[in-house]
User: Fold Cytosine/adenosine deaminase from Saccharopolyspora kobensis.
Amino acid sequence: MLITNVRPWGGPLAEIAVEDGRITAITELKSEVDIAGAVDGRGRLALPAFSDVHCHLDSTRIGLPFRPHTGSPGIWPMVMNDRENWRDAEWTVAERATHTLGRMIAQGTTRVRSYAQIDADCGLERFEGVLAAKETHRDRCEVEVIAFPQAGLLREPGVPELIDEALASGAAVVGGIDPCTLDRDPVRHLDVLFGLADKHQVPVDVHLHEPGELGVFSVDLILERTRALGMTGQVTISHAYALGSVSESTTRRLVEEFAELDVSMATVAPAQNGSLPLTELTAAGVRVGLGQDGQRDYWSPYGNADMLDRTWQLAFTNRFREDELIEHCLAVASRGGASILDRDLPRLASVSDRPGLAVGDQADILLVDGDTPTAAVMDRGRDRTVLHNGRVVAEGCELLDK
Ligand SMILES: [Zn+2]
Assistant:
């Protein structure tokens, strides 16, 4: 199978050969060629397809009528607002998750790690909805589902048992959340969480919204358990809005320990100041991935299932202007995230590393119009072709039937 007339990472015109879902050759072209049966790139850029490593497919309302935001600030009030409203959605969780995942794939995402909320109110209903979406799109996208105690592990009875059940029935990752501020018992929260991870031999992903030194306190407890259980390369910290707002020496120590234990970071490119510096994380060898978080849900009206849009937001919130740094955001949004889901993939070597389109790589490719990769981030054109495992799964931001 051939993809002709493309410019990998904005380089010279080339032809990409694919066999058994992997890139087997990349050959430079002198001019555009017309080959029957090939995917014609028409001179567009070829980029590695996106990996969304932090989204909440169980809460999305993309595709449904816009509804005014009714939540009040703070995690618990937001959880309660969601709890009061999600059952009134016009579609089931499975229908909403399937639609949104389809929109994500259609716009260039072929690897996803999604949370599925599990709590005393919804039980496994939302988790099962996300599993249904994964099943529907199994030939178009790889999906990992996180069993996620959004309302805490300890505040309401029976939650660890439900998470345990989900991990035995299709969840690939166990999630934790704000061990200090939500459950107010960080040691017990993390002992239950890492106990479940150890029992099921699955990775851990912790939502951390805690401020400054309190967040550092939780992170140190996470690092302690990562070491004790030999879970190097098995832990991701999501958000961590405030870990860059503490002293420089503490930030440096955390970045070094993340690199040493291969603890990865998932960011959703928030507006807040104080996040750990992206370029320093990469330079230190910490895997960083990007995600869209909740998308047009009961938590937030933002998100549109387009990771190219979120890549723009990552560049914008980092105040990047140089092409190298904006292209680095593309590398984070694609192979950075993929390397969190598949630890056999190497970490990004530097801010100028542009992996994902070499011989041997899985042929998950986005073709998109743009003079350069940076221009594509700025313009976010709609003339896109999405390939997963060397097969075209979407054209012009619409899914192909099969
Ligand atoms: Zn989130």
Observations:
- The mean pLDDT is 96.
- The domain at 50-341 is CATH 3.20.20.140 (TIM Barrel).
- The chain has eleven helices and 17 strands.
